[in-house]
Amino acid sequence: MTKTLLVAALLSSSFALADEVATPNAQQIQEQIAKAQAAKEAAEAKIKELQALLPKPKPAVKVTKNEFVTHTELGYISTGGNTKTETFNLDSKIKKNWDKHYFTLLLDAQYATDNNVESKNKFFTELEYDYQITERFAFDYLTGYKRDKFSSFDYQFYTGPGAKYKAIKNEKHKLSLEGNILYSLDQKMDETYTSTGAKVTYPNTTGIDPSKTISYNSRDYASLRAKAVYTWQILDNLKFDQEASYRVDSEDIQNYFIYSKTGFSSKISDMFSAGVSYKLDYVNQPGDKKRTDTTFTVGIIVDY
Contact 242/230 with Cβ under 8 angstroms? Predict the structure, then answer.
């Protein structure tokens, strides 16, 4: 019996000693935590040091997927009774891109009659090519042609390189600035006179054939053009658009041209919108021709 008790006491003491050795005390645990924390901080510092040695990647240029977009504004007004008038307006913008290459074609045509007599006959087009260098900056090349039978010019042509910068670009506001150096070619209209020396203007409603014609040679010169395009998405279905351009002869600053278009559009459906616009076309031309031509249009806008 005594031997049995003695053996039991020895076994109990051995288990207690073994448990004390296997389980560290609180101080040992704190020391192990401190060592692990120090090792973790050293590893994180080393990772940051190695990451700093890696070459920084160049910011990727955001490229829009290839797309084809058209924006067409149509306006037609007809009046009868004491005054019979017809007015037709077409304003279209077609965009197409391939990766970094962007093409934009602008068409603007206006035709009007007053008591069956032509009162407006204007055609204007621009073809613009952009190469996107960064998300905001692009190389630009522009070609334009304008014909207006009621101005002093038979036609105007210009072409040349430039640059475009997107100064503001967010969900509600967009502002694009452009500048071009252009080669310009202007052809003045012939001037016709009756036998009495009276000037015959277009359209000739007098029925008198002119007896004298003065023809002008075309004039080519270098010019500069600046343009700004601003868009404000006021509401989900209401948008404001403003564009303005200024083109000037680099040698004769009195030879300049200003164009402005202000418009509001309201979505009717995904494809159709109702819109109003006001265009101002100013030509600083000598002579008896009016310098400012304005057009107010109410029409349907088609986007697809």
Answer: yes
pLDDT per residue as tens digits for the range 70-88 = 999 988 888 777 778 888 8
Q: Name residues whose C-beta falls within 8 Å of residue 254's C-beta, 6 or more positions apart in sequence.
A: 284
283 contacts: CB under 8 Å, gap ≥ 6: 151, 152, 153, 257, 289, 291, 293
What residues does 96 pair with on adjacent strands?
Answer: 68, 103
Give residue limits of the domains in the chain. Answer: 2-53, 68-303
How many alpha carbons fall within 13 Å on the CB side of residue 1?
A: 0
- Residue 59 makes CB contacts below 8 A (sequence gap 6+) with none
Q: Are 136 and 177 in contact (CB under 8 A)?
A: no
Cβ atoms < 10 Å from Cβ of 189: 19
Residues facing residue 106 across a β-bridge: 93, 126
d(CA 140, CA 162): 5
CA 62 to chain centre: 15
* Averaged pLDDT for residues 27-32: 81
Return d(Cα 303, Cα 265) in angstroms, integer: 12
d(CA 173, CA 182): 29
Number of residues that make up the chain: 304
**Torsion angle of the four alpha carbons 37, 39, 41, 46, in this order, in degrees rounded to the nearest 10:** -170
Among 170, 181, 151, residue whose Cα is nearest residue 248: 181
83 three-state secondary structure: coil
Cβ atoms < 10 Å from Cβ of 100: 14
CA angle 19, 23, 28 (to 5 degrees): 145
Q: Tokens for 186?
A: 């202007």
Write out pLDDT tens, residues 211-240: 888 888 999 999 999 999 999 999 999 999
Question: What is the dotted CATH code of the domain comprising 68-303?
Answer: 2.40.160.40
